[in-house]
Design brief:
Elements lengths: L5 E4 H22 L7 H4 L2 E5 L6 E2 L11 E4 L1 E5 L3 H8 L11 E3 L9
């Protein structure tokens, strides 16, 4: 089983990452009509049980387990919180967890 972690850095990285996750979800939903959490889905997403305050990961289970709540295997990093906040308010907000975000206060742009 292969598991990847996507690291999205900066405005451009997070905008490209947003498009990547949108495409990944569309691709997996078109190929996985049964809604099972299999090896292909687990390579980019965690299947979590969100009934608890600290969501527990649900293992792959030989392709027999249903998808509960998918969380992207990603870390979003940006010195300005604007793009990350847009992602967290957008249609894919449920795919990311606030524990995956590393941001700073706004006004840090163009600080080379």
């Amino acid at each position: 089983m292969t598991q990847s972690i996507v690291v999205q850095v900066g405005q451009c990285g997070n905008q490209i990452g947003f498009r990547f996750w949108d495409l990944a979800l569309r691709e997996h939903s078109s190929l996985n009509k049964t809604g099972l959490y299999d090896d292909a889905v687990s390579s980019f997403f965690r299947n979590v049980d969100t009934r608890y305050s600290d969501p527990a990961d649900i293992p792959v289970g030989h392709g027999l387990g249903k998808i509960k709540d998918l969380k992207a295997r990603a870390v979003l990093i940006d010195m300005e919180e604007g793009v990350v906040n847009e992602i967290m308010k957008g249609p894919l907000r449920g795919v990311f967890d606030y524990k995956q975000l590393i941001t700073d206060v706004s006004g840090a742009g163009n600080n080379w």
